[in-house]
Design goal:
The structure holds two protein chains of two kinds. Chain A is built from 13 helices and 16 strands. By secondary structure, chain A is an alpha/beta fold. Chain A folds into two domains: 4-231, 3-Layer(aba) Sandwich (Peroxisomal Thiolase, Chain A, domain 1); 242-390, Peroxisomal Thiolase, Chain A, domain 1 (3-Layer(aba) Sandwich). In chain A, α2 crosses α6, α7 (155-168) crosses α13 and α10 (260-273) packs across α11. Chain A is globular. The relative contact order of chain A is 0.19. By secondary structure, chain B is mainly alpha-helical. Chain B has one domain (3-90): ACP-like (Non-ribosomal Peptide Synthetase Peptidyl Carrier Protein, Chain A, Orthogonal Bundle). Chain B has four helices and no strands. Chain B has helices spanning 3-16, 22-27, 46-60, 77-90. The chains are: A alpha/beta, B mainly alpha.
């Protein structure tokens, strides 16, 4: 098993293009959840979301999601400074759910009304979740193994873990991995119908939380074996020290009530990294702000780490739940917390939940020097993953 | 941008985006037809035209409006270069 470093970071977030804007927003405890403009939310209980403000990258003939992904992946590649030969051998693992559904669904609606669907052929080509990987590979010259991971809201994190496996096993030396999702009618209406959306910006771990806020974005990381990074003299942002993946095998949407699958994911990840719970200074929680997730996740975290430690926050309070991008955006948040020695807060947290037995870093970021951070992502259907990052 | 410069950029796109052999791209003339099935053409199919349109929008910063019939504009390198040149002039 080879050790895996993170040598490139790239983000397109509701705070705008780039890692810098993302971290500035997170460290300030800003909330990017605002009135929805991308789709018509008239008649819905919830009409807010965290949209990416400007999509600068790429032709308007590309799907919004592809453009989010291209911006983030190109930034990660540039940050890592990979040569063309390295790119030609690099694996690409993309976590995706919605694909190019935003454009496809509006095209289908137009055609159902007997109208012309704009850029219809291009929309159909970009519709499936696997289309992002096609776009990224083609545009960025990534020629190694190519996977698309669809594990609901943990897709972005699972993509990072799968890419790390390819490096650890010696299949490739370098990989690009991450997740992307754009807001779509299908996603927004689905969560609205499930009554999981808060009409106000979401409040993870607040006693009065009422549900999640939808977001969108993309984050990609360049992963590299220690040997490969060393050979080209590259400094790393951090080490992906381990990961744990489990399945509840319980229900199509609800997490298993005791959080047993979540506990196992965290424990498997710590074991893989050779750590004890006391080594972890920060947990970037899944923290969706649904009454159910946060209660069960809080219980699971306390079960693994004991009451009172470590610091825990949900960055979804600032950028919403970015679906397939969430796991990778939050992985980047965890890495940046290690490198900046600042724990991003849980915004909008006004009234602590007495059932939550740890410090949720309410509203204001906290300075803290930590050696290890974990990021939890729990997808519908009990698709759980914990990533462990180590300071280098 | 002159039509000749646009033509040269289109030949670059043939190689970088449509993955044509550079030698074949170097051989095309301004009069060479684009669509598959036309005699002497470089044989672009419908997916190639999507990729070409994306590449044009990204390279030249123009937006191709599909509400007009584009068939005549995408007939040859010459017609396409003039079309793009016109868009650049209008912008």
């Amino acid at each position: 098993m080879r050790r895996v470093l993170v040598t490139g970071l790239g983000v397109t977030s509701p705070f705008g293009a780039g890692v810098k804007a993302y971290w500035a927003g997170l460290a300030a405890g800003a909330c990017a959840i605002r009135p929805l403009t991308l789709i018509d939310a008239g008649g819905f209980r919830c009409r807010i979301a965290a949209e990416v403000p400007e999509i600068g990258t790429g032709s308007p003939r590309r799907s919004r999601a592809d453009r989010l992904a291209l911006g983030a992946a190109a930034e990660a590649l540039e940050d890592a400074g990979l040569s063309a030969p390295d790119r030609a051998g690099a694996a690409l693992v993309v976590g995706a759910v919605g694909g190019g559904m935003l454009e496809a669904e509006s095209g289908y609606w137009a055609r159902a009304r007997g109208e012309r669907a704009p850029r219809w052929a291009a929309s159909l080509r970009a519709m499936l979740p696997a289309a992002h990987a096609e776009t990224l590979a083609h545009r960025l010259g990534l020629g190694g193994p190519r996977h698309t991971v669809v594990t609901a809201c943990s897709s972005g994190a699972v993509a990072v873990a799968e890419a790390a496996e390819l490096i650890a096993d010696g299949v490739v030396d370098v990989a690009m991995a991450g997740g992307v999702d754009a807001i779509t009618q299908m996603c927004f209406m689905g969560f609205n119908a499930l009554k999981l959306l808060d009409p106000e910006p979401c409040r993870p771990f607040d006693r009065d939380r009422r549900g999640m806020s939808i977001g969108e974005g993309a984050a990609f990381v360049v992963l590299e074996s220690v040997e490969h990074a060393r050979a080209r003299g590259r400094r790393a942002h951090g080490e992906l020290a381990g990961h744990g993946t489990t399945t509840d095998a319980y229900h199509v949407t609800a997490p298993e009530p005791q959080g047993e699958g979540m506990v196992r994911a965290m424990r498997v990840a710590l074991d893989a990294a050779g750590l004890s719970p006391a080594d972890v200074g920060y947990v970037n929680a899944h923290g969706t702000a649904t009454p159910q997730n946060d209660r069960i996740e809080a219980r699971a975290i306390t079960h693994v780490f004991g009451a009172g430690r470590p610091l825990v926050s949900s960055t979804k309070s600032m950028i919403g739940h970015t679906m397939a991008a969430a796991g990778s955006l939050e992985a980047v948040a965890a890495i940046l917390a290690l490198t900046h020695e600042i724990i991003p807060p849980t915004a909008n947290l006004a009234t602590p939940d007495p059932e939550v037995e740890f410090d949720c870093v309410p509203r204001v970021a906290r300075e803290a020097v930590i050696e290890h951070a974990i990021s939890n992502s729990f997808g519908f259907g009990g698709q759980n993953i914990t990533l462990v990052f180590r300071r280098v | 941008m002159e039509a000749k410069e646009v033509f040269d950029e289109l030949k670059t796109i043939l190689v970088s985006r449509l993955k044509f052999d550079p030698r074949r791209a170097a051989e095309v003339a301004e009069t060479t037809p684009l669509p598959k099935g036309v005699e002497g053409s470089i044989g672009l199919d419908s997916l190639d035209f999507i990729e070409l349109s994306i590449a044009i929008e990204e390279r030249f910063g123009v937006v191709i409006d599909e509400s007009e019939n584009l068939t005549a504009h995408f007939a040859s390198f010459d017609t396409l270069s003039r079309f793009i040149g016109g868009r650049l002039g209008a912008a």
